[in-house]
UniProtKB/TrEMBL annotation:
Keywords: ATP-binding, Kinase, Nucleotide-binding, Phosphoprotein, Transferase, Two-component regulatory system. Residues 1-48, 124-172 form the PAS domain. SUPFAM superfamilies: ATPase domain of HSP90 chaperone/DNA topoisomerase II/histidine kinase (SSF55874), Homodimeric domain of signal transducing histidine kinase (SSF47384), PYP-like sensor domain (PAS domain) (SSF55785). The lineage of its organism: Bacteria, Pseudomonadati, Acidobacteriota, Terriglobia, Terriglobales. PANTHER family: PEROXIDE STRESS-ACTIVATED HISTIDINE KINASE MAK3, SENSOR HISTIDINE KINASE. Coiled coil: none annotated. It holds the Pfam family PAS_4. It catalyses: ATP + protein L-histidine = ADP + protein N-phospho-L-histidine. This is histidine kinase. Its EC number is 2.7.13.3. One of its GO terms (molecular function) is phosphorelay sensor kinase activity. Residues 262-477 form the Histidine kinase domain.
């Protein structure tokens, strides 16, 4: 019998009615007397006092087996010198009890580790789910079967004025019948992501309202690289877009006001001359002098007619793109400032080397040129100086595209370095109450829509201050916009 117990993997010992050890198998000796001490005949609770405390499972189970002939089973931790967790089973015997136990410390540690890991994973899952549900952008997951909504967050559902559960199961084109959107998804399903794409259209739940979004779509792939779905992140920018359009319209009105002021000044001078010439003609009896006065008056009226015609052309906003040279547009813009230039110490130096026309919306480009010319003249209004205007054929080295570079260089006061990074931001101005802060912002928007670039360099040094604006436009700018 002793050989049978020694072969067991569990530790086994017998206790008599006084709780004295009467037998221990080999494994029990290894666990309870690792130093080789003799514990036979010793009382369990005296030898291991840490088993005795209020509510002790050792005492409860052993007494239950000893006194009431019950089977006891429990797990408990024993501190120094063992520092282990035990799983214990106690059974009644003829002259006491028999106890089976094993060290389950590693099992407990593994279980605790798994429990802790599971709790952490659940915490992270809850955090991710909270972020997903409450994100300030619309998030959605689509399958590849007709691009059906598998899940979406509250913000995405709010685009349709619905709850997420009311959208799940419906298709993309059913909810958003926007031209070109399905073709866009076809490209993503082929594995090509789309990032920050401007989307314009109406929803099936609000077909009469034009909405604007910035969207990004990404393919969802399995471990072998197969595309299994599509995720979408959408930010509605309808309010911002409408605000932007209102600001652009405001700047257009401001530009019209500045133009009207310039035109009034340009026309007033020749009209005053005509008035004076007619006054002189009326008061002379010399027919030769009268004729000369009338010829001079006719010249001034022709000047008024030329200014009027140029003004009408200047503010013409064709809905179709036109092929026009930058020299034509610059001279058109300059004509509005002729009176101002004639009465100021500003010298304009023109170098028009590029003669190939650019296909563009000339009214928009003329607005940009006029704005840059006005800024240059404002910067030199006090001290005067030279305004260099140059055009030349140039290449955008990032894309390899050919186009025209337009340069405006003035000898004005220059722009403080701390302001240069903000020049193209809306409402930023260095002119105080005299500026709207929209001119350069609108100008950059026009150049961007024409797939061009606009850059600025400036310095402030005694006797060597000035600013250079450089615009580059591709020859086929308007074709790219279509």
């Amino acid at each position: 019998m002793a050989q049978f117990f020694d072969a067991a993997t569990d530790a086994i010992f017998f206790l008599d009615r006084d709780y004295r050890f009467t037998f221990l198998n080999r494994r029990a000796f290894e666990v309870l007397a690792p130093g080789g001490g003799d514990i036979l005949g010793r009382v369990l609770f005296e030898l291991y006092p840490d088993t005795v405390y209020e509510g002790s499972p050792y005492v409860k189970a052993y007494e239950g087996s000893m006194e009431r002939r019950e089977v006891g089973e429990f797990e408990a931790y024993y501190p120094e010198p063992f520092n282990f967790w035990l799983r214990v089973q106690s059974y009644p015997a003829d002259d006491g009890i028999i106890v089976f136990f094993r060290d389950v410390t590693q099992d407990r540690l593994l279980h605790e580790s798994l429990r802790s890991k599971s709790e952490e994973e659940e915490r992270q899952r809850a955090e991710i789910e909270s972020v997903y549900a409450n994100a300030p952008i619309g998030l959605a997951l689509f399958d590849l079967n007709d691009y059906t909504y598998l899940r979406l967050n509250d913000r995405q559902a709010a685009f349709f004025g619905k709850r997420p559960e009311e959208v799940v199961g419906r298709t993309l084109t059913e909810m958003a019948p926007i031209e070109g959107l399905r073709e866009l998804f076809d490209g993503v399903a082929a594995g090509v992501p789309v990032i920050n794409f401007p989307l314009v259209g109406a929803l099936v739940t609000d077909p009469d309202t034009v909405r604007y979004w910035t969207v990004s779509y990404f393919p969802v792939t399995s471990s072998d690289g197969t595309v299994t779905g599509i995720t979408a992140a959408s930010l509605e920018v309808t309010h911002q877009k409408k605000t932007e359009m209102a600001l652009i319209q405001s700047e257009k009105l401001a530009a019209v006001g500045r133009l009207a002021s310039s035109i009034a000044h340009e026309i007033n001078n020749p009209l005053e001359a005509v008035t004076n010439l007619l006054y002189l003609a009326e008061r002379t009896d010399d027919l030769t002098e009268v004729r000369q006065y009338l010829r001079d008056a006719e010249v001034e009226l022709r000047r008024v007619a030329a200014i009027t015609a140029q003004t009408l052309r200047f503010h013409k906003q064709s809905t179709d793109a036109q092929a026009v040279t930058m020299e034509e547009l610059i001279r058109s813009a300059l004509s509005i400032f002729q009176g101002r230039l004639a009465n100021s110490p500003i010298e304009v130096v023109e170098c028009f080397h590029a003669q190939q026309p650019v296909r563009c919306f000339e009214g928009e480009i003329r607005q940009v040129l006029s704005n840059l010319l006005g800024n240059a003249l404002d910067s030199m209004s006090a001290e005067g100086g030279r305004l260099l205007i140059r055009t030349q054929t140039a290449t955008n080295w990032r894309t390899g595209d050919r186009g025209v570079a337009i340069l405006f260089g003035d000898q004005g006061t220059g722009i403080d370095a701390k302001f240069r990074a903000k020049l193209f931001e809306p409402f930023f101005t260095t002119k105080g109450i005299m500026g709207t802060g929209l001119g350069l912002w609108v100008s950059k928007g026009i150049i961007d829509r024409h797939h061009g670039t606009i850059a600025v360099r400036s310095r402030q040094m005694p006797g060597a201050s000035g600013t250079i604006f450089r615009i580059w436009l591709p020859f086929d700018a308007a074709v790219r916009r279509s």
